[in-house]
Amino acid sequence: MEASDYVRIFDTTLRDGEQSPGATMNAAEKLEIARALARLGVDIIEAGFPAASPDDLAAVRSVAEQVGRSDRAPVICALARASAHDIDLAWEGVRLAIRPRIHTFIATSELHMRHKLRMSRAEVVERVRKTVRHARNLCDDVEFSAEDAGRSDHEFLWTVVEAAIEAGATTINIPDTVGYTVPDEFGALIAGIISHVPNVDKAILSVHCHDDLGLANANTLAGLRAGARQAEVTINGIGERAGNCALEELVMGLHTRFWLHRLRSGIDTTQLVRTSRLVASVTGIPVPPNKAVVGANAFAHESGIHQDGMIKNAETYEIMSPATVGAGATQLVLGKHSGRHAFAKRLGELGYLLEDAQLDSAFARFKHTAERKKSVTDAELEALIAAELPERADLWSLEALQVGCGTLSLATASVRLRAPDGTTRVAAAVGTGPVDAAYRAIDDLVCRPAQLVDYSVRSVTGGIDALAEVSVRVVSNENATVRPLHPQHDALPESSTWRGHGADTDIVVASVKAYLAALNRMMAAAVAFRAVAAAVAVEEVSSR
Length: 544
Ligand code: KIV
Ligand code: ZN
Known about the structure:
Blueprint: E1 8-11, H1 27-40, E2 44-48, H2 54-66, E3 75-81, H3 84-94, E4 100-107, H4 110-117, H5 121-138, E5 142-147, H6 154-166, E6 171-176, H7 183-196, E7 204-209, H8 216-225, E8 230-233, H9 247-256, H10 258-261, H11 272-283, E9 300-301, H12 304-312, E10 331-332, H13 340-349, H14 356-372, H15 378-385, E11 397-404, E12 411-418, E13 424-431, H16 434-446, E14 450-459, E15 468-476, H17 478-481, E16 497-504, H18 507-542
Parallel strand pairs: 1-2, 1-8, 2-3, 3-4, 4-5, 5-6, 6-7, 7-8, 9-10
Antiparallel strand pairs: 11-12, 12-13, 14-15, 15-16
């Protein structure tokens, strides 16, 4: 028995979501998404519409047989029109699930009954009784949906809902099929059902809102606040036409404004971004950058005022933390609106500490560049400030690299580096892949305790011959091995991280350049640091 504030999350990405133009998924892809949905913690997975095709039936069956075999198994549901034939096929699809559900529907608006079904009100009510009873004879868990409920006559809808519950429906779903209603209206529709249907307490009320006017999430919230306790949603809001209410938006709305709604779901919010990406890559429907919660810009800040606020306290411009939704870290995007504060912070992260005058002139040049570009990358930033820095010879540089990889043998790398003393050193290593092998060989030569904490690669230009730009971040483990020169200046601060970038048409070469750049920066800082520490020690000895 669920608590009265618990909202069941019914995910229909694999059924209504698949009805998005161009989003067809094969059985293996559906299974992969269903597993991700189970991990996310959805309560019900609508796996498909078995009467649509034999492939659909097979996909539903494979989800029912293979997903959610643990303690907290989600209900696996299949859709059926209000006909014995469809319902039998739906049952065939889900019957092997630990917790199966049959979901049957028929339209209840005058428009649909007259033009699509060509049935009278009395015939529709009779069909509901017959088909829900048939489904209930097969399965204990039966959901009934009144299609186009948002445009149905309220009193007729109450009659249909009462008949469906009498016939054995355990969940009653109220869809705003064409996304026509507004929140007050939709909330009142749900409240009206609760107060006028005598047996409504025998079933869970559900809402299913489409986004034709951009109100799917608002309408879903209104329905839940009026008393519904199941929400039908899809990942990324995909679905027929403008789509459905987006799972991630609804769930984060409940989570972030808990004290307003006092409703909760069982979703593991840290899985949201990961699941969103999976669905986008399987369906080929990209997530717009400005999409709430899971868009690439959902936690990116560009304007100087916002960046300044974020540096002082993240709550100034973030109502939820990126970690809560599994989105990694907040991004301060350097662009034409960025301020000096964010600019200096980013340079610091890259390992550059400029004097005030240097910073002023670098910032002026940055602003000039940013006026002409959408955003300024780290590599461009480094090129921009090169004029402010004294000529610095790299401590270690790449002379030659050879890698071997593939499915037939272990990944190996041989690396030849020029050392700070001008000599040439060679090392070879094996690894999990060519980049890992090359990094291990470099570690053997450089002998610096560092840990790779970030690695990313992006293609600078399009096409197969694209230039790859690799960015890495390493953390110094200096403290573990370097004996302190002075108690107040013991090696590098533990939190020091050093970034490096490398670009090349060969992705492994780009990776090696990036890693060496980060290690060089780390070692240059350590040298400067030791010089300061030694000077302080000398000063102290001579003053005794
Ligand atoms: O939008 C709708 O009405 C539906 C029903 C089948 C639930 O998807
Ligand atoms: Zn729908």
